[in-house]
Amino acid sequence: MAVLLPPEPRVLILFNPFAGQAYNLKQTLENAANIWRSKGWDVEVRPTKAPGDAILQARLAAEQGYDIVVAAGGDGTVNEVVNGLVGTRTALAVLPIGTVNIWARELGLPMDLHRVANAFLTAQLELIDVGKAGERFFLLMAGIGFDGAVTAQINPGEKKRLGIFAYVKQTLQLAWNYQGVRSFIRIDGKRVRGRILLIIIGNSQLYGGIVKLTAHAIVNDGFLDVCIIKGHSMLVAPLRLLSVFTRRYNRDPKVVYYRAQQIEIKGKKLLPVQVDGDYLGKTPMNFQVVPESLWVLVPKTVDKSLWKNE
Ligand SMILES: Nc1ncnc2c1ncn2[C@@H]1O[C@H](COP(=O)(O)OP(=O)(O)OP(=O)(O)O)[C@@H](O)[C@H]1O
């Protein structure tokens, strides 16, 4: 159920100076903050000092009673802020200055910071689920297998230079030799068999900022959506992806789709795992939904298919 913002909220903007577009957009970010200040919002801008710092700063802000913490960065910064805010009353917002900015796109926000700041002036607060991979919370998705391998090998310098094309390049390089792996998977207690190329566990719908791999995901339904692509070789993945894009989940025997609360993945071969676009580690790992655990600021124009009807 949507809740109105307090009239003059106390806001902390955590600015990641190493996010993809931070250098170019620093002044624009200040201008966006001024739009909020001009409406009486109490806004403070603070840079992050190192990877992981946004988790600590967001947690402290929640303890100090801030109404909103804004992740001014990409999805890595959003993920850190989420990890500081889960289970608190403080809400997450975003000013997209990263490379891909999936959460901002998922909310239907423009990529122009002035327009984002204006959209948030009339936004509402919503309570949503998050996912948990091992001990790490995630907002968007966890990717296991091929997807995790691509993320593990992304070079930060190359990501800065090439943007999203760094992922395209790495995907093409790895796809030639990547083989599906027999793994032990339990989804809400049910065993799933076969050779696994890729598993996406989605709390939300968008993948990579452009496609929907977990197209039926709802952010406040108490479940995670799981899309599994099976097979021997990534070279046939385009066929599988065609099934995903045309939503022929479960009609293509190599593309299976579940809605679940608990997912367990283990096996002889360890699979790389990414969460919200950043490499996390390797299986064995358990994944679970943490229902209604994060307040988020949501513009009025958001895609209604992300929410369950109340
Ligand atoms: N002060 C800092 N110094 C170095 N790295 C930092 C600092 N603050 C944050 N980081 C790290 O920068 C990394 C990249 O940030 P982020 O994901 O926000 O931007 P991006 O990679 O450009 O965007 P996207 O994830 O949308 O592609 C994160 O993993 C984060 O931990």
Automatic annotation (TrEMBL):
Which cofactors, by name? Mg(2+)
Q: What is this protein called?
A: Diacylglycerol kinase
Q: Is Ribosomal protein there in the keyword field?
A: no
Q: Please list the residue ranges annotated as the DAGKc domain.
A: 6-136
- A single MF term (Gene Ontology): ATP-dependent diacylglycerol kinase activity
- Please spell out the taxonomic lineage of the organism that makes this protein: Bacteria, Bacillati, Cyanobacteriota, Cyanophyceae, Nostocales
Keywords, alphabetical: ATP-binding, Kinase, Lipid biosynthesis, Lipid metabolism, Magnesium, Metal-binding, Nucleotide-binding, Phospholipid biosynthesis, Phospholipid metabolism, Transferase
What GO cellular-component annotations does this UniProt entry give? Answer: plasma membrane
Q: Which GO terms describe its biological process?
A: phospholipid biosynthetic process
Q: One Pfam family name from the record?
A: YegS_C
- InterPro entries for the chain: ATP-NAD_kinase_N (IPR017438), Diacylglycerol/lipid_kinase (IPR005218), Diacylglycerol_kinase_cat_dom (IPR001206), Lipid_Phosphate_FormReg (IPR050187), NAD/diacylglycerol_kinase_sf (IPR016064), YegS/DAGK_C (IPR045540)
Q: Which domain of life is it from?
A: Bacteria
Q: Write out the similarity annotation.
A: Belongs to the diacylglycerol/lipid kinase family.
